[in-house]
Amino acid sequence: MAALGWLTPRRRSATARSVLAGEASAEAARKSSQEAQEAAQVAQAAEQEPEFPVIGDDRAAAFFDLDNTVMQGAALFHFGRGLYKRKFFETRDLARFAWQQAWFRLAGVEDPEHMQEARDSALSIVKGHRVAELETIGEEIYDEYMADRIWPGTRALAQAHLDAGQKVWLVTAAPVEIAQVIARRLGLTGALGTVAESVDGVYTGKLVGEPLHGPAKAEAVRALAAAEGLDLSRCAAYSDSHNDIPMLSLVGHPYAINPDTKLRKHAREKDWRLRDYRTGRKAAKVGIPAAAGVGAVAGGTAAAIALSRRRR
After folding, report:
1. Axis crossing angle, helix 176-185 with helix 75-85, rounded to the nearest 10
2. What is the pTM (predicted TM-score) of this model?
């Protein structure tokens, strides 16, 4: 009988590793339950809120930041990759662009020094080239490096505004020529971007004014709204960066999309709507049902379906 002792389960005291495993499992179960409750609360809140965007409201429009809001990463860095491929600059410059892009993707926030350096590099690179040439190259670069980096969830939000009969504008520090290409390829109304000086269709290597960044974005939106006869209290704005708080604060419907830490904190304090397409975590306060997943097509589809149902 003793020979069969190995068949009998032996009682053993819990080891440190087994305790850790048990605690981790319990925490995962608790977190899953909490997320399910939050999802139910989000859905309930969405049903109780008035329809948005409002169909047929021609005095409303939507303004979308570009980098890490509509598109993963920074448009200027992707543009730099395309110019390198066309031998506009050398390998050492590409390495710098690659490092800045990697930092931006990992940190999820703009580094002012990186952005300034990228702008200065871009201006020196395009100096002496024709505007028409860069516009054509921009179309090619969009297909090569940008088309696959559009967040489907954000794209669905922009489409909801278009479907409601509203104009949708990109507002970005990227060169206006690149911003216009992206807006056109996404079927948006247009784009506000940084304007590089040109004389007789040739870039001089200087800017007109300053980059469209931070407060400058808010001023651009304010000016466009006045020209278009828009009521900003009925408009929406979307951004990932705390640098765009001035723009977000202008409108009646501000959204924090893939927000950096400062913007997330500010949005929660102001009870602004949140979306995060970078992870599976749930938005804290939303007006349109959140689309889950890391830029998953299903996420964008879910948002579009939810919006369609709410219009019925």
Report:
1. 100
2. 0.68
